[in-house]
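Handout, section B. The chain below has 135 residues.
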Amino acid sequence: MSEVHNLAQAFASAIEDQRFLDAFNLISESGTYTVIGTTKASGTYRGRADVLSRLVPILSVFVAPPAVKFAHIVVDQDRAVLIGAGQGVGPTGPYDQPNYAFSLRIADGAIQEIVEFLDTTMLDTAVFGKKIVDR
């Protein structure tokens, strides 16, 4: 197995086991983690310390952290894509992500970049208490 596959698998396993700090510690000191969208959690976190100090507190409010399972890991050169799904309970409601994808770039024995693709409405409603209403 390649270094890319091994690190992607280690990240996936840590997320599945809800060992989120172990997963985030695989990010290099200068790596980036981007959460897509325009939610309060969305944006690019720069460096492991930024992920731990700004993103982890947002995620710590879950009543039941998302139980994520990955169905596929696709590796191409220095990139890996993890495809999965997860369910949990946020402080303001159920959190259902039937289609998660994480894109990772790996080099020098660490994750250099993560982009998390998810249904951001779930973050807004389950974590930040927003209500979605028709016009």
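Note. The beta strands are 27-35, 43-46, 64-76, 79-90, 93-107, 110-117. Compare this with the example in section A.
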